[in-house]
Amino acid sequence: MIKNNKIYKGNMKKLILKGFCLFFILLNTNITKAEDGYMYGGLKIFNYGIETSDLQVINTSLVNLGFTSSTSSTDNSGIGMDLGFGLNVSETLSAEFGYVNYGTLEINTTLTGPSETVKTEIDGDGFTGAAVLKLGEENDHGFIKGGFHSWSFTGTVTASLGSSSEPLGTGTDPFFAVGFKSSGWYGSYDHYVIEDGDIGSFSFGYSHSF
């Protein structure tokens, strides 16, 4: 029985070693067959989705603090960027990981009673992970992207007496994109969910294989 048990254990070790060898052979074969990875980066033009009702909430809050009147305005846009790398899992699917800067939302407020001018700036950045479905040839295709972004935002208020910055929050939410890539250049529309709101951007950039 002891001899048979030793033989059994020896066979099991051989099977396990063969299994690991087979796994690594298959893994290496898949890596060899997979296409090269790539790096990407570009500019993003954001629309923050601020509406008149949002500005009115700010004005009402300031009047409640004791000001006679408050008028706020914003161009509702900002310029950011993204940078990252991708790995082609197959001819039609890739995985991407990157960094995104959400630009700066600027809101200007004019107060009376007493008179004051206030500038509010909200900026942030985050990290992304996504799966990308490619629709077409490698160098000329449309794509659909879906994943998550881990975000962090900070607010800075500047008035005549100085400025103050405070963290506004952090979180992780979904994001989606649809776009087109041709000869390395790409353009896309990106939609970022942020808690109970969202922001969007048009992206333009270049991708380089390695």
Report the average pLDDT across residues.
87
Any idea what the radius of gyration is?
A: 26 Å
What is the count of distinct domains?
2
Q: What is the tally of beta strands?
A: 9
Oligomer: single chain
Question: What would CATH call the architecture of the largest domain?
Answer: Beta Barrel
Shape: elongated
Order of helices and strands: HEHEEEEEEEE
What fraction of residues sit in β-strands?
A: over 45%
What fold name stands as the CATH topology of the largest domain? Porin
Head-to-tail CA distance between termini: 58 Å
Main beta-sheet strand count, sense and barrel state: 8 strands, antiparallel, barrel
Structure annotation, total helices:
2
Helix content: 10-25%
The structural class is alpha+beta
Low-confidence stretches: 1-10, 22-34
- CATH class (first level) name of the largest domain: Mainly Beta
